[in-house]
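Pasting two entries for a bug report.
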Amino acid sequence: MRKFTLKAGYRLAIGLGNPSFIENGFAFYPTYGIPYIPGSSLKGITRNLFILIVSEHLNRDAKSVEEDLMNEKFDNSKVPLYLFEDNFGEWELQETFNVLFGTKNREGKVIFFDAFPKSLTLDDIEIDIMNPHYQPYYTNPKEKPPIDCYNPVPIHYMVLKEGVEFEFVLGVANDTDPRYLELAERLLKAVLKSFGVGAKRRKGYGWFIEEANR
């Protein structure tokens, strides 16, 4: 098992599409009622980064690479997994994907646990706002043009503040080479620090930083 802590570099919006008693949803853990990042989301973004690295290395479309990986068609081919400035050597492509994420025929052996804040107060939760100006156009685009005479319609949603620390935990089956666990950690850290997790990532939300003394 491996644990590491990262700090939210900006606001974090998780689960905006979840059913909720408030205007927009938020990811609250069903048992404890506190904000969290589902392990399935962490596995998904890490898997996407792996596929992106492979597709760029092979100069192929990411969807076709994903399909071949899921159907275990890469045989014994290898790929160098460059994690930005860090070269982590060559890895057997198909077997690495099998172990980290699983395929249509087998389960992965790396476990991405749900991530929770290390500490949390009510002050760490705040209300953010989207302010669309073209709601009539969005609701009836065939009859309403996107013009500036409409009134803005504020939409409120919850976010976690910048600076909230999360603890991330990865596990692996007992019979698995521990290097796969190290690779999973490097990939997860890389995607959280460079691409982020959750909603509105193109607006700068959801990315993390690692403090130098950790």
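Entry 2 (this is the one that rendered wrong in the viewer):
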Amino acid sequence: MNIGEAARASGVSAKMIRYYEQSGLIPKAGRSAAGYRDYSTTDVHMLRFVRRSRDLGFSMAEIEELLQLWRDRSRQSADVKRIALARIADLRRRIQEMEEMAATLEHLASCCSGDKRPDCPILADLEQGEAGKPRRSRGAIDSAP
């Protein structure tokens, strides 16, 4: 099947298929007599594997490792589990960071009167940047201390 058919069958865009081939994540497809890429059902199965892995948040390096394990029938499932548990830990860390960001923004929004006055604690906090840097009271660039 050609790249368009493989894209439809796998749910991976033709552009991403080319990228995965170019980056070495998947082997380059065979070529037809006319020079077009020719994908097998095995190739489509691999592309679905990659797509599902991306959907679950695995990095390209992790997907490469998972593909190697997938192809290796003498693999140990502990190796696969280690990668999955590391992904879970990373996702939980990122969720925690996002929860903290949301809580901070909720607090800042609750402190902002949202009226016609120029004072804005949200802008003042953004202006502060890293902890310990001077905080400007109005949140305006022209009111530097």
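Dev reply: Rendering is fixed now. As a check, the viewer should reflect this: The first strand starts at residue 30 and ends at 31.
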